[in-house]
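Show me any protein, keeping tokens residue-aligned.
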Amino acid sequence: MPFMFCNLNSVCHVSSRNDYSFWLSTAEPMTQMMNPVSGMAIRPYISRCAVCEVPTQILAVHSQDSYVPQCPHGWSPLYSGYSFVMHTAAGAEGTGQNLESPGSCLEEFRAVPFIECHGRGTCNHYATNHGFWLAIIDKNKQWQKPMSQTLKAGGLKDRVSRCQKTEIKEPINAPEITYGTGAM
């Protein structure tokens, strides 16, 4: 994704810096040599989405436990998932989600759910990319310093908090506005 940056003198530059963008990725494995992909070869690696307008609020609820949390009273479940917090890349690059945001509850768990793309038109999963997930914490130890632990493939999901994406049962209706015709 090419970026244009402008300075105070109204001089703008297109694709002349380290243009980075991050995209929710698919489960498609990278090439065997882990080479960056470009052009149409990028398509299988970037997740597709649809933007829909809904007549109600959507909320993510997190358990910080292995169980899927219940929806608040008056809310209905949409789907359950894993509690995603943020990702980082080389330098100060990265982005995050508010935990109440629907984007913080991902249906599938992948250690690093984003792919990094550069302005030169290439994308890859780089070793500097990190995914941050809300961890499970024992209720009896929640105010203690957590013990450091390294997990390997196969048991990663056992320590990731579960979440539920929910919607309020009753649509939110905007209040009706009436305008008076009072005389002055």
Summary: The chain has one domain: 4-168. The chain has a mean pLDDT of 84.
